[in-house]
Amino acid sequence: MNYSGAELGAFAFFSSGFFLLWLGMIVVSIIAMWKVFEKADVDGWKSLIPFLNIWEMLKISGLNPLFILLLLVPLINGVIGIYFAYKFVESYGFGIGGFLLYFFFTPFFMLYMGFSSEVEYVGNYYES
């Protein structure tokens, strides 16, 4: 049988340790976001549902949840996404240094935010 490059690539990915690493990072990210939500007194299960998790993150950040509409607009979404990420990290008491750590090492920094006893939610929850 002749296999295409895509089929061989998929086989190599799923049969290698990279798949397990990728799967592990997803599990770590889910656990971290759940804990970060709970620190802001938001039900952790809301972190599992697409769009609802962004909606709640906007509220945690003190931003109007309708910002989610701007995240759907090309080019504008990059600027809004950076602003949103900064406000999210700021709501847990971090400044620009924390934002840079969040930006470059999101899963690990979310774990730190979720499990560290030093990090507390200090932001204003947006009441809609």
Q: Would you mind describing this structure in some detail?
A:
This protein is 62% helix and 0% strand. The protein is mostly helical and 128 residues long. It has one domain. Helix 2 (17-39) crosses helix 7, helix 5 (76-90) packs across helix 6 (96-104) and helix 6 packs across helix 7 (106-115).
β-strand amount? under 5%
Secondary-structure element order, N to C: HHHHHHH
Principal-axes shape call: globular
> How many domain units?
1
Structural class: mainly alpha
Low-confidence stretches: none
List the helices and strands and how they pair.
Elements: H1 5-14, H2 17-39, H3 52-60, H4 67-70, H5 76-90, H6 96-104, H7 106-115
Helix pairs in contact: 2-7, 5-6, 6-7
Question: Can I get a quick summary?
Answer:
By secondary structure, the chain is an all-alpha fold. 62% of the residues lie in helices and 0% in strands.
Primary descriptors:
128 residues; mainly alpha; 7 helices
